[in-house]
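Page 47, continued from p. 46.
Same chain as before, 300 aa.
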Amino acid sequence: MVRGAHPQRLPRARLRSNPPGVHRGGDCMNPAAAEDRKAVKTFNRCINRLKDRTRGIPRILEYHARPHIEEMRKRQKEIIATTEPPRSAHYQEQERYEREMFSRMEEEILQRVTDEALPKYHTDLEELETVLERLADLRRRLENRFPSIRRLYTGNPRYKEWKGCKVIVTSDRSVRQSNTTDLSFGRRLIVFSDGSGDADSVLVTDNPYPVVWLMYRLLRQEGRGFIDFQNKFELFARIVETAKEQMATTRCDSESEEQKLLLRCLKEPVEMVTECRDYVRRWIDEFEEYLREQRQKRAR
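Result:
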């Protein structure tokens, strides 16, 4: 031992923990393994780019692309294997590799959304157009054949009262919005209790027949295809509030006043369906325009 040297400070022999030709950092001297890691990093960058690209407008793509992207993540090895690998380590070749992989992944997403989601939006658009046609036909009947319609509901016990969809239309003066509780959540049934009120809107009137008749018509005939997937609670609450406004200025106890009441209440579903139709049409146009732009870029 060298004089003055501490035993713990003696140099130690280094033990080789990795096989010859491989550094401590792993298998970086293995070209195949290094290329595999680069390919995985490229794939992950493409996934993140797809998430960024499908966020925002067009909204159809934003809503429907995410499940396909997650499914694509599970096919990592397949996508890497079917993409032509870079022919050299030059950065331009690496850019070509990533560009080609991303382009193929994006095209697949666009095609799947086009095939699976877009037809459903076109079907919804057609249904909403049909609902608007039925509402327009009902309006013409109210304008031109109102006496015959009035005979259908006047004094009919079926249209004497409405309790459901969180609204009440009745002639019972004891009913107040503060003593109703809706336990049905969609079924036309409201039970009364001493608890706090749960009805969104309550209309107490001596003549509930025209409003109740209109609500039945919308629920079972003219509103089919819209009320099924639109907020029927909002629709009927808006009708009841409109009727309350109209009845605050007129008695609505004559034929002409009832006709005006129904025509005014009918504007509420027309406005709601039109707004929904315009949204669906705008989303379709956004997606189809985006699709055309992307296809044109690839064709250049």
